[in-house]
Amino acid sequence: MKKYYKIIIAFSLLFAVAFSSCELYNPAEPIPAYIHIQKIDLTTTATQGTNSSKISDAWVYIDEQLIGCFELPATFPVLYDGKHRIRIKPGIKVNGIATNRSYYPFYNFIEQDIDLQKGTVTTLTPTTTYTSATVYEFMSDFETTGTTIDTVKGKTDTTLQILYSATPHENVFEGTHSAIAYLDPVNTRFECATVTPMVLPQYGSPVFLEFNYKCNYGFTVSIYAYGAATSAQFVVLHFNQSLTWNKAYVYLTPSVSSASSALNYKIAWGMINNTAEDSISLSLDNIKIIHN
Hints:
CATH class of the largest domain: Mainly Beta
Distance between the termini: 87 Å
CATH topology of the largest domain: Jelly Rolls
Number of strands: 21
Strand content: over 45%
Structural class: mainly beta
Largest sheet: 6 strands, antiparallel
Helix content: 10-25%
Shape: elongated
Oligomer: single chain
CATH architecture of the largest domain: Sandwich
Number of helices: 2
């Protein structure tokens, strides 16, 4: 019996030594510093159009090391202490798809030196600008005279109206003007497009369409491709209703490049009242087509 007690005691001592060794060689977890980014704003010049943006993500680098992509607003830990260089690339949901996130190639990196302290939150208020390489192929905010977007003959039963309001109005996003179209059970089709055909890069350079919109019915963005003797229309993206003003970033490159023989292009917005509903409307503002 004493022999068994000795064995038990021996195993107990061995277990105690092993356990204490684990504690001895298990170092304390490092204390991180924290960074908080509520949002990223956009600043524009008079020639770059609206500063409206929908920056959803921050791609964060510290000392040139990618830390991660964070959906805003975000508070995240970093294992850095003291002074470091942070770079933030603004990110978007391409085509409004939550699973299709990317940094926006036309927004500049935001760079600054920060002093991080363990256990402390450092709050940043970053602002970005368009890159100097950005080409503004088309812009319209409906604030000036002249027709830059008009209805497409044979594809619309209604008109594109330019709405004016000197005071804040629910259908004017900013400024005093926006474009609006109405559909009903009698007038069931609407399509408008850029008036002047544009030459767009087909390969290598990203092409994006930006615009603000508000609608109570779904609509479609499409592209017209014009060749020497032919033309074709391609659907780019379908939008669901948005009862409040929204911002879209539409990736045009695949559609532009698929029409490799095209010489120029137009962008179109269209609605079809398939359900014979009344009081359907689509409001548009701040349209930009940009590329490098």
